[in-house]
């Protein structure tokens, strides 16, 4: 794989960061100058005004005070604008630094976004899809919880190309169109981070819609409340002007009693809307960016964003109204102001009523808007991944209409979680149901890594993203792995029994009636038992796979299994090997045809100081 373009992207990010750092230095110096100027204006203004007042020149002192105050406020205004720009600049620099860390796979500089694999997933644990140094940690540059969940679904749920809200062809087309739109992606990310450091939480917004306000009979409570507050004010003014008896106490007591009866429902609603206006501001900011950008010239983006851009009622207007209502209800956080407002008018009940009416209008539209933002956000993460890795290829999916043989063909296939300067690429051709490649090789030669390379790139391809390869074409495949097996003490499973259960899952998958073939990746089959039973079980298992609708790769240390290829056209051998230079082992991680001609277990034991038969070590030399 050519790494020149990747190096160019790295140098480009360095140049951008250098310019941003220079701009920040200038901005910080300008901020210091503003601070000095504010202090100078304050000191000079205070001195001159005090001097004029001491001379009893009050009119001149007042005019000078007004002039200096106006100047001070003007300087403060521009200083605050500069601070806002510096904060935006800091966030932008953080984004570019993180992009550079993702390109270089510098995990210490990548934000630790934790994703959890679904329990008993057929390949997530094997392929490092979740965890600290995982594919999702590398991919996840989302700005919303909806985008994060959508990205997880695209990675974890690849059984069919049509299982998601956006079919695979549209997912890939959307990611392709978003790849060059660096400014659009950065603006959406920055818009949410400028409001709060946490991602846009769509679940808070949907929870407000899914749960009613909890106040029944608002249709008569609201006019009654207005009547009570109106009578209280009218009778109170009458008492003040005429000295009449305090009749205003009666409607006030009735209104207070009705309000306290509703205070429990209003209090629980307040807890849900207190921070909601911040999430709504984030959502409005992102949608406004999409509205103002020229995304309509991209057909897939225009199609996906149709609910946001072609609606008769633009989302930004409705969401801005919803945000204002939530802010009005949030006045409860200020007890004195809240009490005063609710005495003169049914503030809470009025805005709860407005909230109820608006939520009824948005009950079906708002989830669609959030889902659309989630799709755009997830596709933007794949697009950023493609932009940072320009040498990666967009995979080509072969449909059944093309009458192609099920399988995949890849040239220059590499592992995306290995830095490009240490990555070794290989070619792979695997076609036909029942066909498989038996991979043999020495310890540490690269067998397990190659299996993971195939699997993780298939996940990327079927998610709609680019793959770490020169070319990649495939039919849709269901993926199932048995690579990283661990004992489950909480379930009472030994290592061997856990492995048997995983292999049974693969066998059930390749033998079911699903029309989509299974790609299986099995590392060191039956490693948990003795040589004789492992060899017999492996032969029987391979024969069962050959008679199924699956295809895949198996690695093994049992060189005796390589002989199966002599009598079976569905099985072919490939291997990794090492070389010995200056008494130490060296690996080139290149996949070669045929069975492995060497082994290295005894040599590794000897190098680490373990006792081994010397004649065997000499013979292997």
Overall description:
This protein is α/β, with parallel strands linked by helices and 621 residues long. It has helices at 4-54, 58-104, 135-139, 145-156, 168-178, 182-195, 202-210, 218-242, 249-273, 276-292, 299-304, 306-309, 315-329, 335-344, 347-362, 365-388, 447-463, 495-511, 531-546, 601-607, 614-620; strands at 396-397, 407-413, 426-431, 436-441, 471-474, 478-482, 518-523, 550-556, 571-576, 578-581, 584-587, 592-593. Strands 6-7-8-4-9-12 form a six-stranded mixed β-sheet, sandwiched between helices. The protein has a four-stranded mixed β-sheet with strand order 1-5-2-3, covered by helices on one side. Helix 2 packs across helix 6.
SSE topology sketch:
Blueprint: H1 4-54, H2 58-104, H3 135-139, H4 145-156, H5 168-178, H6 182-195, H7 202-210, H8 218-242, H9 249-273, H10 276-292, H11 299-304, H12 306-309, H13 315-329, H14 335-344, H15 347-362, H16 365-388, E1 396-397, E2 407-413, E3 426-431, E4 436-441, H17 447-463, E5 471-474, E6 478-482, H18 495-511, E7 518-523, H19 531-546, E8 550-556, E9 571-576, E10 578-581, E11 584-587, E12 592-593, H20 601-607, H21 614-620
Parallel strand pairs: 1-5, 4-8, 4-9, 6-7, 7-8
Antiparallel strand pairs: 2-3, 2-5, 9-12, 10-11
Helix pairs in contact: 1-2, 2-6, 4-16, 4-17, 5-16, 6-10, 8-9, 10-13, 13-15
């Amino acid at each position: 794989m050519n790494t020149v373009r990747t190096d160019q992207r790295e140098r480009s990010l360095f140049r951008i960061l250098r310019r941003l750092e220079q701009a920040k230095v200038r901005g910080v110096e300008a901020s210091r100058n503003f601070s000095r100027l504010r202090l100078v204006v304050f000191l000079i203004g205070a001195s001159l005004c005090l001097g004029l007042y001491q001379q009893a020149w009050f009119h001149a002192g007042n005019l000078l005070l007004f002039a200096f105050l106006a100047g001070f406020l003007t300087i403060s205004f521009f200083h605050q604008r500069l601070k806002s720009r510096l904060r935006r600049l800091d966030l932008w620099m953080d984004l570019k630094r993180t992009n550079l860390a993702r390109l270089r796979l510098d995990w210490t500089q990548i934000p630790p976004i934790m994703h959890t694999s679904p329990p008993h997933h057929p390949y997530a644990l094997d392929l490092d899809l979740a965890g600290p140094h995982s594919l999702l940690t590398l991919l996840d540059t989302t700005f919303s919880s909806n985008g994060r969940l959508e990205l997880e679904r695209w990675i974890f749920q690849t059984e069919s190309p049509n299982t998601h809200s956006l079919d695979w062809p549209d997912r890939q087309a959307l990611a392709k169109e978003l790849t060059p739109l660096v400014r659009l992606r950065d603006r959406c990310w920055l818009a949410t981070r400028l409001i709060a450091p946490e991602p846009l939480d769509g679940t808070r917004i949907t929870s407000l819609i899914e749960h009613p306000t909890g106040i029944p009979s608002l249709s008569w409570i609201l006019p009654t409340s207005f009547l009570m507050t109106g009578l209280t004010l009218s009778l109170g003014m009458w008492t003040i002007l005429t000295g009449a008896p305090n009749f205003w106490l009666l409607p006030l007591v009735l209104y207070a009693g009705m309000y306290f009866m509703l205070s429990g429902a209003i209090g629980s609603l307040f807890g849900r809307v207190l921070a909601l206006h911040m999430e709504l501001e984030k959502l409005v900011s992102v949608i406004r960016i999409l509205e103002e950008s020229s995304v309509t010239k991209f057909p897939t983006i225009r199609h996906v964003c149709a609910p946001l851009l072609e609606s008769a009622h633009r989302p930004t207007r409705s969401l801005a109204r919803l945000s204002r209502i939530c802010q009005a209800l949030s006045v409860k956080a200020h007890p004195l102001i809240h009490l005063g407002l609710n005495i003169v008018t049914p503030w809470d009940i009025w805005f709860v009523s407005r909230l109820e009416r608006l939520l009824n209008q948005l009950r079906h539209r708002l989830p669609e808007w959030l889902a659309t933002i989630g799709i755009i956000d997830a596709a933007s993460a794949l697009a950023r991944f493609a932009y940072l890795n320009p040498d990666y290829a967009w995979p080509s999916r072969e449909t059944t209409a093309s009458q192609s043989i099920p399988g995949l063909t890849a040239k220059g296939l590499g592992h995306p979680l290995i830095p490009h300067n240490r990555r070794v690429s290989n070619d792979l051709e695997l076609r036909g149901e029942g066909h498989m490649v038996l991979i043999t090789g020495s310890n540490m030669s690269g067998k397990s890594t190659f299996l993971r390379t195939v699997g993780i790139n298939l996940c990327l391809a079927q998610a709609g993203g680019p793959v770490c390869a020169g070319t990649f074409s495939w039919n849709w495949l269901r993926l199932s792995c048995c690579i990283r097996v661990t004992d489950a003490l909480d379930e009472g499973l030994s290592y061997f029994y856990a492995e048997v259960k995983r292999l049974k899952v693969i066998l059930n998958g390749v033998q079911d009636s699903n029309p989509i073939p299974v790609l299986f990746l099995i590392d060191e089959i039956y490693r948990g038992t003795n040589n004789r039973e492992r060899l017999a079980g492996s032969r029987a298992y391979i024969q069962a796979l050959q008679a199924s609708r699956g295809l895949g790769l198996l690695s093994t240390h049992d060189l005796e299994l390589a002989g199966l290829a002599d009598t079976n056209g569905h099985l072919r051998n490939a291997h990794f090997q090492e070389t010995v230079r200056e008494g130490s082992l060296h690996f080139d991680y290149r996949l070669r045809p045929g069975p492995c001609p060497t082994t290295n277990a005894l040599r590794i034991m000897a190098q680490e100081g373990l006792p081994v038969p010397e004649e065997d070590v000499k013979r292997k030399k």
